[in-house]
Amino acid sequence: MRESKPLVLIIDDDPKIREGLSRRLRCDEFAIATAASGAEAMPLVRSKAVAVVLCDERMPGQSGISVLSAIRDQSPSTVRMMLTGAPCVSLALRAINTAGVYHFFTKPCDTQELALSIRDAIRYHKTIYESRLAGAKYPPARRRVEACASESQVAYELSLDEEHDTEGS
Fold first, then answer.
1. Are 120 and 52 within 8 A, CB to CB?
2. Are 53 and 41 in contact (CB under 8 A)?
3. What SS3 class is residue 61?
4. What letters, b where the CB count within 10 A reaches 16 and e where it falls short, cover 48-80?
5. Which residues, listed in sequence order, are joined to residue 81 by a DSSP beta bridge?
6. C-beta of residue 59 within 8 angstroms of C-beta of residue 12
7. The pLDDT value given to residue 92
8. 103-106 β-sheet, strand order
């Protein structure tokens, strides 16, 4: 059975931007879907395993930060990236702190740099997804390992305390 390609979702209200990015980023490594708004994107996020979202900040009706925040809530392992034509430090900080944005791009952006960042984001998504899957699949074993590690740390600290007490006598 062939593994499906990771899905990258581009959200921008400007059809020329959506089509241009989709055309320039087309490759064999990942599939691309597009949406004109957060409202159009959310059903895709709910129904498909979206690895990476690239979202414009300024769109009618809903900001990119609020769209990416909603995507984070719906699909925490989806890596979120922002694209904006009006960059400023406060916007970048809000995007990172509020929506957990992985990478922030300004328009126009270098398509090769964007493609490299998307590939990195896909690797990051795979790591997050596999980690969550392993945690869900083996929670009792994980808890035992964590408990053993905790007990070992306590035993080590007690042995240091005993050494210190013996040295002081």
1. no
2. yes
3. coil
4. eebbbbbbbbebeeebbbbbbbbbbeebebbbb
5. 54, 103
6. yes
7. 83
8. 31-35, 7-11, 50-56, 79-84, 103-106
Residues 37, 20: Cα–Cα separation, whole Å: 17
Angle between helices 89-99 and 64-74 (to 10 degrees): 20
What's the longest Cα–Cα distance across the chain? 79
- What is the per-residue pLDDT across 50-62, written as a single tens digit (0 to 9) for each? 999 999 999 999 9
Reply yes or no on domain 7-137 having CATH 3.60.21.10.
no
- How far apart (Å, rounded) are the C-alpha atoms in residues 15 and 40? 13
Pair 18, 34: CB distance under 8 Å: yes
> For 78-115, how does the pLDDT look when each residue is reduced to its tens digit (9 = 90+)?
999 999 888 778 888 888 888 888 888 988 889 899 99
**Spatial contact of 2 and 31, defined as CB atoms under 8 Å apart:** no
38-47: average pLDDT: 95
pLDDT of residue 97: 83
Split at pLDDT 50, 70, 90, the class of 166 is: low
Tell me the pTM: 0.74
SS3 content of the chain, % helix, strand, coil (to 5): 60, 15, 25
